Amino acid sequence: MADPRFFKNVGPFSLSEIISHCNIDTKELDGSVLINDVSYLGAASKGNISFMDDKSLINELKKTKSEFCFISKKYISYAPKFISLLICEQPRTAFAMAAQKFYPDISDLSMIYKLDSSKKNLDVHKTSKISDNTYISEDVKIGKNTIIGPNTVLGKGVVLGNNCLIHPNVTITHSLIGSNVEIFPGTRIGQDGFGFIPSTKKHLKIPQLGRVLIGDNVNIGANCTIDRGAGPDTIIGDGCFLDNLVHIAHNVTLGTGCIIAGQVGIAGSTNIGDYVMIAGQGGISGHLNIGSGSKFAVKSGVINDIPPGGTYGGFPAIPIRDWHRQTLTLKNISKINRGKK
């Protein structure tokens, strides 16, 4: 379920309304049954509708508590018997259309940035200091001894813990942030993740219904971008340090104590373990699992799952000794070729 502090659900809707809205042709199910929300398989519950269109989701499908599911024909055999299946050619598209129906105001800026006259339920501790020209929307909570720099924006429902230092020109929406967190100028947290379905007619945007959860003792450099989750949350674990110009995509999870150097990009839905170190300009592909304690050299390109504890380099990233051997081999081949000329 999407956090009601940030998103307004205008459901429930009958199954027949959802079927009609998503242009699905099925008459086998009871159209009067109510659906109360959209959700991804792993977080779904009774009354929710999810989707299944990829083999990577098979385990989640088997364990899901979702009551309804848009599904491709080839995955029907994996679905639990209790789920009502809406069979279609493009389950993800149908899910995106359903999500837009439940959350039509998701792009309405007035839902995030309230006028001064309409603000309510502000909870700012008396020991905190708010600079001039800072904008704070309604339902924001700020803990003890927190300092907010000028020209910073806190969207509706944002929570900041104790002893935080938010530098100037920071924008934070759809986020719950712990204590002892420092965020440097120009950083943007909680904006839409890059989620859409390509089409030759018009790309279909997938509503981003998750949050950003940031733990305690986190340091985030200048001009970083951390996108909120699509349904699962984007999570930055306790004690993580991010350098300037780091991009964290939607649904990414960073474990405890990770160190991410400048210009690193981590693509969506990748899980990073504890105490992982990524050197400058590294790139991590989406939907990967990176083991705890692993390290990556400058400009490493990671396109496969990585086990815990190793050191890697190159593109595609391989164990560092193998990468050095490859580098020396190429160097020697170059010398040989020059000698032949």
Structural class, judged by helices and strands? alpha/beta
CATH superfamily of the largest domain: Hexapeptide repeat proteins
Mean pLDDT reading: 94
Work out the count of structural domains: 2
Total DSSP E strands: 37
Query: What ranges have pLDDT less than 50 throughout 5 or more consecutive residues?
Result: none
In short:
Helix content is 13%, strand content 25%. The chain is of the alpha/beta class and 341 residues long.
Could you walk me through the main structural features you see in this protein, from its secondary elements to its overall organization?
The chain has 341 residues and is an alpha/beta fold. The protein is built from four helices and 37 strands. The strands form six sheets. An eleven-stranded mixed sheet has the order 8-11-14-17-22-25-28-31-34-36-37, with helices on one face. It has a nine-stranded parallel sheet with strand order 7-10-13-16-21-24-27-30-33, with no helix packed on it. The longest helix has 21 residues, at 320-340. It is flat and about 75 Å long.
